[in-house]
Amino acid sequence: MTEDTICTCNNIHEEHDTAIAGNLPDNDTFDRLSKFFKVMGDPTRMRIMWVLHREEMCVCDLACTLGMTKSAISHQLAVLRDSDLVKNRRDGKTIYYSLSDEHVHLLYEAGLEHINE
To answer: Are 95 and 62 in contact (CB under 8 A)?
Structure first.
């Protein structure tokens, strides 16, 4: 810390600072959380998630719905899958994608609600 970042309030908040610092997650946790939000920070991936928030779809249907190529959709789905935001299931030769769990649905809904207030 530099001198100008040190608290000058005569340790009035020491109890709070100690309690918070003692529960501070490690740097790896913050790195993973930052990467998670970066993945969600892409408009194309948000469009895909918007569709998958409503129903599961295969790559072909996603491409038609969003007016994109199957290759572009597949690339973005791989990124979303790597971040555990989407999952897939096979039905014969077709692979269907959906949001991975209720946490992702809630996170997406909360984000939409927040920006629409």
So the answer is: no
Alpha carbon 18 to its chain's center = 30
pTM of the shown model: 0.78
Q: Give the tens place of pLDDT for each residue, 18-65.
A: 677 778 899 999 998 899 899 999 999 999 999 999 999 999 999 999
Q: Please check whether residue 86 is in contact with residue 98, taking contact to mean a CB–CB distance below 8 angstroms.
A: yes
In this structure, the chain runs to a length of 117
- Token pair, residue 68, equals 């994109």
| DSSP letter string, 31-75 | HHHHHHHHHHT-HHHHHHHHHHHH--EEHHHHHHHHT--HHHHHH
Mean residue pLDDT of the chain comes to: 88
96, 57 contact by CB (below 8 A) = yes
Q: Are the CB atoms for 57 and 97 separated by under 8 Å?
A: yes
C-alpha to C-alpha distances, 60 to 53, 57, 91, nearest whole angstrom: 17, 8, 14
